[in-house]
Amino acid sequence: MAAQPKKIIIDTDPGIDDAMAIFLALRSPEVELIGLTTIFGNVYTTLATRNALHLLEVAGRTDIPVAEGSHVTITKDMKLRVADFVHGADGLGNQNFPRPKGEPIEQSAAAFLIEQANLYPGKVTVVALGALTNIALAIQQDPAFSKNIGQIILLGGAFAINGNVNPAAEANIFGDPDAADIVFTSGADVVAVGLNVTHQVVLTDDDRQKLARSDGKFAQYLCKILEVYFSYHDYAYNTKGVFLHDPTTLLAAVDPSLMTYAKGVVRVQTSGITRGLTLLHDTQKRFGEVTEWSDKPTVKVAVTVDAPAILNLVMERLMDS
Ligand SMILES: O=c1[nH]cnc2c1ncn2[C@@H]1O[C@H](CO)[C@@H](O)[C@H]1O
């Protein structure tokens, strides 16, 4: 008998690669998408909510609830860093899509996460694609959340490589480093997929043209919004391809064997010039002194990835839609 599909909530800041990940989830028989929660990152939270509702309308899946997340960081900082220069001012490739008809549910993102984790203890996976504020709020508001939630698979960090905001920090962690440190040290089953992995998964211009030639509904939609993301990569990395951060992270939930993982304690730098830096202690050395990593719960950090297999899945599933 086929395994039950995994109940997944995507915490998202759509975002061009978020749109890919959401569509991929909807095209994955292994996944039951039970909700979207929204957060700032690629865009402000209000726009993330609008885009999440819009994407579900495009997919014909307005039955899936959207819960709006925090508009400020966990320390109530209102000065957010938003990457509209990566995704366009509207977050979706400057297409001026019509305003969605739907509305978010009354519950906040954190309340929705807590409710679903309580409803299906150990069975819900959160795939976190933006700043980690909503997840940290859920951890703070419900002491049982880190036990009840099945797994938290997050796109975040740059393990032993440079970041993408600055040499120290990756964008999602930099967006709310205090929240990220709460999540990493919460004791939940956390899997971090960082730039060290996602920078190996590249959608080339050839792949984009293949998508354009297919008559897949999602493929056609994505080709419209991808241009801005390609231009940004050309400018920032001098490449004619784009990194598939969010789809790669979603696929870690679909098939964990697409990656290998190191286990250890991750702490996040929350101040100074390396604010947002993620540092894994792989626990191979026993330090003589007590450190800020001592006695903290371990997490898994993705270290290698089967990039061709991931790209195949992305292409197949988006073209067949
Ligand atoms: O250069 C960048 N600055 C800020 N955000 C970026 C950049 N490149 C990609 N992303 C966005 O941040 C997440 C991965 O860190 C992804 O959502 C990606 O779209």
Structure keywords:
Inosine nucleosidase, Inosine-uridine Nucleoside N-ribohydrolase, Chain A, alpha/beta, 38% helix, two-stranded antiparallel sheet, 13 helices, 9-stranded mixed β-sheet, globular, 321 residues, binds inosine
CATH H level, superfamily name of the domain at 6-155 and 187-254 and 314-319: Ribonucleoside hydrolase-like
Strand residues, percent? 15-25%
CATH architecture of the domain at 6-155 and 187-254 and 314-319: Alpha-Beta Complex
The total of helices stands at 13
Structure description:
- The chain is an alpha/beta fold.
- It has a domain of 224 residues: Inosine-uridine Nucleoside N-ribohydrolase, Chain A (Alpha-Beta Complex), CATH 3.90.245.10.
- Helix content is 38%, strand content 18%.
- It has 13 helices and 11 strands.
- The chain has a 9-stranded mixed beta sheet, sandwiched between helices. Strands 7-8 form a two-stranded antiparallel sheet.
- Strand 1, helix 1 and strand 2 form a beta-alpha-beta unit.
- Helix 5 packs across helix 8.
- The longest helix is centred in the C-terminal third of the chain and has 21 residues.
- The chain is globular and about 60 Å long.
- Inosine (NOS) binds next to helix 7 and helix 12.
